[in-house]
Structures are given as C-alpha cells and as structure tokens.
Amino acid sequence: MLTELVIIACTIMLLVYGIKWVALSRGLPPGPSRFPVVGSLPSMIYYSSRPKFLTLAKIAKIYGDIYTLYLPNKPIVVINSKELARTAMITQKDAFSGRPYFFTQHRFSRGGKGLGFSDFSPTLVLNRKIVHSGLRLYQPRLEGRIMVEAEELTKRLKNHNNQPFDPKLDIFLAVVNVLYSILYGNKHLEVDDKEFLEHIEYSDGVAHLLGPLNLLNIFPWLVHFPIAETKLMVDLINKRARVRDARYYEIKEAFQANHIHHHLLDALLQAKVDEEKEDTSSCGVMTDDYIMASSDALFRAGSETTTTALHWLVAVMMIYPEIQERIHKELKEQFGDGIVSLEKKCNCHYLEATLTEVLRCITVAPIFPHRTTCDTTLAGYHIPKETNVLLNIWAINHDEREWENPEEFNPDRFLDSEGHFTGTSKMSYVPFGLGRRICPGESLAKTELFLLAATMLRKFKFECPPGSSLPNLRDGLYGLTYTPKLFTVIAKQR
C-alpha cells in the first residue's frame, strides 16, 4: 500500500511540475532548448563563448532580436536590438524599469536599496531626484577636482622612467581619488596606502560577484556552504563597513544644513533636506541605508567603468599608434602646452570619437539587467509581470545591420565629412543604458574620461614594451564589467 501511495504522490508532483513547466513559457519569445530543473544551461554550455556575454550574442544570431533563456527554470528575456531596446526602455519605460532580484546584488545594495539594484518604486524616483540634485550642487567643483588628479596621474606616469608597468593601478588611483574628493572631501590616497589597496580588493571582488551569471546568482542556496564566493562576499561587506560606512557617519555627524557643500555626501544630505521641505510626505523615506547605498552605487559604477574604459584606451593606443598620433596632434592644436580644460572639449572631435568607439567596440558594461513591473508585450510576445529582462548592450553595439565591420575599431565612424564629431543619438549605441534606469553618473563619467584621457595623451606616448605581446581587445575578463587582462606598457613623455 505504501509503495502505491508513493507512486501516486510522485505522479501528481510530476504532473503539477509538468503543467507549470509548460505554462511558464506560454507567450514568451522562443529560444534555445530547455530541460527540466536545469533550464537552458545545457544550451548555454553548447553555445558557450568567452567572455560569457558573447554566448548571449551568439544565441542572438540564431534566435533573433528577442529570445528567452531559463536559468535554471526562471525565464529571462534577452533584447538584442536598438529598436526593441528603445521600445522597451523608453516607449514602455514604466513596464521595463524594474530590477531583477539577484542574490549578490541584493546583498551589496543593502537589501535592494540605492540607485543601481533597487526595484522601481516611488522611493527610487525620489532617490534619483535627490542624487541628481546633489550632482548639480557639486557640478561647479567637478572640473577642478578632476584636473588635480589628472596632474597627479602624469607625475606617476613620469616616475616610471620609460620602464614597463601595469597602467591599471595608476589609472584606478586617479579615478578613486576623484571619487573620494567628490563624495567625501579632500582626502588624497597614495598608491601604497592600505585604504587604497582595500579599494582595489573590494572593486575586483564586487565586479566578480555582481555579474548576473555569477554562481551565487544562479544557485543562491550555495551561500550556506563555505565556498570561495561566500567567503569573498562576507569579507567585502566587512571591508565596506570599516571604510565607507564609517566615513559616511562621520560626515553626517558634521553636516550642517544650508552651509557650503564641500563634497557630494554633503550635497546629498542637503538635497534630502530640501526635498523633505518641499514634500513632507518624503520625510523619513531616504534613510541612511538609502543614501549609503546610493553613494556605494556611484562609487562602484564611477570607479569600475571609468577605470576600465581608460585602461582599454591605453590598450587601444598601443595597438593603433596612428590613432594615438592623430589624437596628440589635435590636443596640441587645442591646448598647446597649457592645461587641458572642458572649455575646448567641443573642438576635440577625434578624441571624442575615439572615446565613443572605446565604449562601443569594447563595450565596458555588456549587459544591463531589468525586470517588468506589469504584464506587457514586446515584438508581439506576451511578457508577464516580474519577468527578468537582459539588455544585451554588446549585441546592440555590434549589430551588423547598423555598423559596417562592427568588430573593427574605427573612430571615423563617429565623424562627418568635415571631421566633426556627430554624436550618437540616432545610432545603435547605448553604453549607459536607456530610459528610467539610465546611468545617473553618465555626465560625470564623460567629463572624467575626457579630462583624464586628454591629459595623459597630450603628455605621453604609450608603447608596447619590447618582447611583449599587444593587448587583445577580444580577450578580456568579464564580471560586472568587461576588463582587460594584465598587460604592461611604456609611457614616454612627449
């Protein structure tokens, strides 16, 4: 009798599972084969490429501009074209403005708070408003802060005395110091400071853990086992508490409303005060955790993406010396031996085109995760509420229908017949995302990229050390961003 009951129970469970399994895909875009329990993982292994985002692009060539993956049985809709991205993120911005729950991102965003990984809500709208207000309050000091670090960067590059070195540390230190001065005040870190070395460890570790395809995001229950990812996550959260959280509470303690703002956290706290005066219903909404999570997101996104873009820029200069010489000539014409400034940024057409091509061709942030906030449709398919959506930025930036020879690095594609920078508004190009979740630090990132790049390339020529191999733009490391593998360079002073 017991055996028969077990068989009946198992049969019922299998039937329920089968019905749910079939119903799960009803109306969704087609995609690679999926299997019980493991979903599309066998298909992804079959199509596997390195870095992982190239796997998604390879699948797009087979299944088109929109398809569905199951990891392991949860549907993920992948968008691979400019038209569908704009329809989803702009035309239907409210429907596609959510953020999916990923285990590691939830942990690092203090329970889904802040700008980067929180789901769409009135609190997020208020949070973004306060951050934009804070950035505007700080804007008059921005160029000066960046140029201080740009000059410090040139000193460090000069100190290498034409010997090979890894450029990442020097670039990362400049970017971190800019963000430190913006967020916290005037403290200046050196390359061998313990606090700076902790920032390197934190940044590298977070970039590894926050990738959507990280092991803990696919199998969150593994956090209960003493695996490397779990140990790393605990260590990183403790590091953050020792450094950034402690500094925030020091600043909050000293904050005085309506006084001169020396850094962005002051400006954020002031913007919070102003917003609560204007709208009393917002009182108590923006807690310490929300402000710290927002500053975490700005620091993480600003340091990781800007450092990575400049790191790749150095690699590009080594690979394409003719591009480097053309940029140097333009900078000499505009600035001579004087200080680089934003005033003449609009005249540096070729440098602007080159920086834009770095963000397109290499694609520093290849994947943007979203989630639907309601039932909706896209390209004729039914997308249910709370469906995870991946915006495949790499596929959009390399769409063969939009770009001639998309894998070729060619800044001229962003110049008109007179050599003027054309901009990118109508192009298949979305490095900072779209719609409600567009990167709030886009203006800061572009300003920092230009000033640091122009300062370096006006004063130095970057060359590959004798006997070394050139960097490979298609052989990087993918975590939260796509970063270069280790390479060395010689910086010759002009």
Structural write-up:
The protein is of the alpha+beta class and 494 residues long. The protein has one domain: Cytochrome p450 (Orthogonal Bundle). The protein is 52% helix and 8% strand. It has 16 helices and 10 strands. The strands form 4 sheets. It has a 4-stranded mixed β-sheet with strand order 1-2-6-3. A hairpin with a 3-residue loop joins β8 and β9. The longest helix is centred in the N-terminal third of the chain and has 37 residues. The mean pLDDT is 85.
Describe this protein with a few key phrases.
16 helices; 10 strands; alpha+beta; 494 residues; single chain; 52% helix; Cytochrome p450; two-stranded antiparallel sheet
Topology:
Blueprint: H1 2-24, H2 41-46, H3 53-63, E1 66-70, E2 75-79, H4 82-91, H5 103-108, H6 122-158, H7 167-183, H8 194-209, H9 215-218, H10 228-254, H11 264-278, H12 288-319, H13 321-335, H14 349-362, E3 367-371, E4 376-378, E5 381-383, E6 388-392, H15 393-397, H16 442-459, E7 460-463, E8 476-478, E9 482-484, E10 490-493
Parallel strand pairs: 2-6
Antiparallel strand pairs: 1-2, 3-6, 4-5, 7-10, 8-9
What is the residue-mean pLDDT, rounded to a whole number? 85
The end-to-end distance, rounded to whole angstroms, is 89 Å
Question: What letter string, H or E per element, gives the SSE order?
Answer: HHHEEHHHHHHHHHHHEEEEHHEEEE
Task: Note the main sheet.
Answer: 4 strands, mixed
Q: What is the structural class?
A: alpha+beta
Q: What is the share of helical residues?
A: 40-55%
State the shape: globular
Total of domains: 1
Q: What's the name of the CATH homologous superfamily?
A: Cytochrome P450
| % residues in beta strands | 5-15%
Oligomer: single chain
Number of strands: 10
Spatial strand order of the main sheet = 1-2-6-3
Low-confidence stretches: none
Q: Under the CATH scheme, which class?
A: Mainly Alpha
At CATH's second level, what is the architecture?
Orthogonal Bundle
Please name the CATH topology: Cytochrome p450
Give the helix tally: 16
C-alpha-based Rg, rounded: 24 Å
